[in-house]
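Team,

Forwarding the record for the chain on the shared tracking sheet. I've put the sequence and predicted structure together so nobody has to dig through attachments.
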Amino acid sequence: MRIAVAGGTGAAGRYVVAAARRAGHEVVVLSRSSGVDVRTGDGLPEALRDVEVVIDTTNAATTNRAKATAFFTDVAGQLQAVAAAQGVARLVALSIVGLERVPGFGYYEAKLAHEEALRAGPLPVTIVRATQFHEFPAQVLSRAGVGPLALVPVMRIQPVAARAVGEALVGIAAQPTVTDVEIAGPEEKNLVALARAVLRKRDTRAVVVPLPVPGRAGRAMRAGGQLPSPGACIVGPTFEEWLDGEDLAAMFA
């Protein structure tokens, strides 16, 4: 199968590309580095020629509601229109668990707009919602430092390995039709505790300061609004197993 991966060089997309190639699929990476701009459509018609399925793992470079919404809706419109014109059969799009349960968080509202824009197009779409990645605590630490302090939001999550999500996306894309799916890791965790575990693993000295996010969004995060529904597909590894693997080290290579 010929599969195109939008955002194929990103945190999730690179695992999708690797998993698809391991499974024997022909992969087209849709990224600016490969001469394709999925927001403007530059290079997209040529890249989607003979593609059967598009997997959308794009990510906005901002958490600003208006800017992220504009990005996601532009991408969704381009992928739907150009893919349909090129004879692509269907789209599979990566999203986030709990979007409706965390009101007032701009990025989540932008992702809801992304889903709606994808569904408004002519091609059938499978939305795959995943919980926060195991990589998330390290990402938070990388941008949360204030001197020797690391300000980490207080939230309950059930993290999943980005590698496992990439493999799941490829499996879903290879099936003829699939209803929307939720994917989560095996265990509920507290983000603050996970951040401290990452620091210990990397032997890094920093003081993690729990930061209660204000407003409705923060209350929902602390109450478990980002946890998966009972019918979610649970995949490993656990966070502790992931810490001992190669993916954390690769983030800091």
